[in-house]
Amino acid sequence: MKSVLPILTVVAVIVALWYAAAVWMNAQWVYDQAARADTEVTLAEVIPQTLAQERPVLPAPHQVAAELWKSVVGQKVTSKRSLIYHGWITLSATLLGFAIGTGLGILLAVGIIHNRAMDLSVMPWAIASQTIPILAIAPMIIVVMNSVGLSGLLPKAVISAYLSFFPVVVGMVKGLRSPDAMQLDLLRTYNASRGETFWKLRLPASMPYLFASLKVGVAASLVGAIVGELPTGAVAGLGARLLSGSYYGQTVQIWAALFAAAIAAAALVGIIGAIQRVTLRRMGMAR
Amino acid sequence: MRDQGAGSPVIEARGLELTFQTSDGPVHALKNVNLLIGKGEFVSFIGPSGCGKTTFLRAIAALEHPTAGVLTVNGMTPEEARKSRAYGYVFQAAGLYPWRTIAGNIRLPLEIMGFSRDEQERRVRDVLQLVDLEGFGKKYPWQLSGGMQQRASIARALAFDAEILLMDEPFGALDEIVRDRLNEELLKLWNRTGKTIGFVTHSIPEAVYLSTKIVVMSPRPGRITDVIDSPLPKERPLDIRDSREFIEIAHRVREGLRAGHSYDE
Ligand SMILES: Nc1ncnc2c1ncn2[C@@H]1O[C@H](COP(=O)(O)OP(=O)(O)O)[C@@H](O)[C@H]1O
Ligand SMILES: [Mg+2]
């Protein structure tokens, strides 16, 4: 209970600020309408109108909530107007990309710690890859993959993987290198092979680092999948909802899609956190 | 050669030199070290920090490589001796894996060395009993006190039946009361198993209480300044530390340490 109260306080403050901002930002339109119709409006008349516009500059929280409710619960999940439908399209690309990125990240990390040439060469490239803006590289990936007949899920997953492999490489290299010299010496006194050192010491020691990276990685994957939907003008997915919302000035729809993405990200991170707790407890590493 | 071991030689160093190349130039960690350790002896290495105690123990374990001289373990090179599982090594920190139970930690060398499942279980049970940790096999390391963790790490080193036990300040991080008890237990264990033990410490009472042979070392360059064969009997109650003989040996060790230091001035 003690932790709930501060959270609720913060949420209440944010919602209040949001309403204030919505009134302030949408008021101009109300005044413009009134001027056009040659009528006067009082402040008491303005406020309700700012919170009920069809295309507000900043939708009010209850409008976003209503739109979310309508497009999540009020539609069949197969409907093009259902956020579940669009969310799933994005989520499937996210999960596939996350799986590819995680696998690639772990493989690279294993290579880096076992091979001096890889240690020296891979990391700079990995870092360089992340300095290129994803918005610049996403269209190229999609165009190139399209030209060899790959479209839909896979190009988006590749962009997802492009963003998510990096935290996994960095975290896993750190984790696999976390055993200290004494622990490595101990295994040397047993004549342990590199493989045994990896499976019995390095890999288990890296688990806390892996999970920390996976949480960052899965959020990055979702961003990658959404970004991957923008340049194609995709017709389905959260990115497509954002895009069509902005074409037609449907700000309420944009915000609803944004919230759907945020909720999905929070859920993904939460799921990984739960797996982390179970795994580390099973391993005896959580107290 | 300075003296004869109690049994046949297990560890032999002749003219041993070990120099580390560092960015500030060479560090002469061991200089002309000559030593014979016989089977079943309990040998302590004592000296101020930096005198090469750890380096010598690590050289015996083939974790460091001498730059000159001869070092044999059971008549073999240290590498060959390691491959024949000649020794178990106990570090200053217990270094138990937090993700393994106490039994799992003790099983670690047995898994790597390819003992059968049944044999692993039998040995884990035996060594847990040997270090007085029966009933703790299923606990995780963090559930045990520091002294118990160190006992578990000794059990881990004993599990594969090495003839030699190398211990580098194994009780250095523990308080004196726990340390006294573990010293007593270590002596009992040594009596029961007849292993050859190399033991690094910088506590004079600990060295005198435990050892059949005390090797006094001094730094820059690291070398042996005195080797004292203890006349104390094999059975040693804790109050032997008040006996005249004990005090005399302790005095000689102190003298040896002081003599080593005079080089610095
Ligand atoms: N890996 C190493 N590289 C360079 N110098 C080292 C290394 N290990 C030990 N030394 C140096 O060798 C000397 C002996 O060290 P050590 O054997 O650890 O001493 P002790 O265990 O007696 O305190 C010290 O001067 C130490 O700084
Ligand atoms: Mg030392």
UniProtKB/TrEMBL annotation, chain A:
InterPro entries: MetI-like (IPR000515), MetI-like_sf (IPR035906). It is found in: Cell membrane. One of its GO terms (biological process) is transmembrane transport. GO terms for cellular component: plasma membrane. The keyword Transmembrane applies. It is a multi-pass membrane protein. Pfam families: BPD_transp_1. PANTHER family: ABC TRANSPORTER PERMEASE PROTEIN HI_0355-RELATED, ALKANE SULFONATE ABC TRANSPORTER-RELATED, MEMBRANE SUBUNIT. Belongs to the binding-protein-dependent transport system permease family. This is ABC transporter permease. It comes from Cereibacter changlensis JA139.
TrEMBL record, chain B:
The keyword Ribosomal protein does not apply. GO terms for molecular function: ATP binding; ATP hydrolysis activity. InterPro entries: AAA+_ATPase, ABC_transporter-like_ATP-bd, ABC_transporter-like_CS, ABC_transporter_ATP-bind, P-loop_NTPase. Pfam families: ABC_tran. It comes from the Bacteria. SMART domains: AAA. This is Sulfonate ABC transporter ATP-binding protein. Belongs to the ABC transporter superfamily. It comes from Cereibacter changlensis JA139. Residues 13-240 form the ABC transporter domain. Keywords: ATP-binding, Nucleotide-binding, Transport.
